[in-house]
Amino acid sequence: MKKHYFFYIFVFIVSIAFTAISCGTDDSAQEYEPVSPVVLDLDAAPYDSLSKYKFFEGEMKNLQPAYKVLPYDLNSSLFSDYALKKRFIWMPMGVQATYAADGQVLNFPVGTVLIKNFYYDNNYPDRDTFIVETRLMIKKATGWVFATYVWNDDQTEAVLDMAGRSKRVMWYQNDVTRIINYKIPSAMECALCHKSNGSPVPIGTKPQNINKPYTYADGTENQLARWAKVGYLAEGYPTGITATVNWNDTSKPLELRVRSYLDINCAHCHTDGGQCDMPSMNLAFVKTADAANLGVCIEPHDFVTGDQTHIVAKQNVEMSLLHFRMSTNEQSEMMPFVGRTIVDEEALTLIENWINSMDAPCP
Fold first, then answer.
1. pLDDT digits over 305-328, tens only?
2. Cα–Cα–Cα angle for 349, 296, 244, nearest 5°?
């Protein structure tokens, strides 16, 4: 009996020693690499419901990103009837985007998903948040595809809908109740803005637009630096990127704010290869340091419906076609002709101030 007792003690001591030795090996010292829960089968996507991708943790309406679903923002945002946006990007393991130019969309690898949620704060009557739609752009081997998901009233799910529809939205803006029929675009309408030389492309994800600090859960960091840190952007991109600005930032020069606004809201069409590619106006940020590309003192030959004398007539708002197009809601005359149903009043004031500040009338 005593021999057995000592034998068991010996085995116990040896097992503890072995465990201690094995815990100190190099294999166990390796860091555990978590895996993103996102589910993306490129052959099956787009899925019929947003929840199937598993982009978000917890209640989906909270838009709490899952591991490796990275939030991001733009210096200036496209106007969408005052809807707010929360943007995210996800990539599969082992691939990276690469830099092309300050004003060109990053070269994204196959499997990239860009996620943009459109929502209103101060929703009527409870002043809560209401998400209207989530738009995805998914990079397949054959190119980018669109997927629009419309949220239910309970904010528990969003279902695929590429036909386009209107949804009544009521919210408080500066303590005034506003009501609109928010337009959710069809696949064809998405393509009108998101096409370059006939192929679908993203709009906002250019280094000039995302070169800015962002406050993440663990601190504030430049977005491009964070993308590189998490493996989403290859090293070697320049540090001196010429960036757009927040057009609402009144501390910035007026013309720089105008150029930034027109770039994100208009340049996807009014640029080389865009839907409205024309020689009289190129609103890409890299082009508008030249005032002629802004249409300043350029006589209009396209989209003329009134008696405006110039695309932008110095010191004369009424004779400026740009201002007229932004100030109307007539479908046949408004610009942009998709993506909004009401006037961006603050931006219109920006354009008015810019035109009135010019040095002398056009000859």
1. 678 899 999 999 999 999 999 999
2. 60
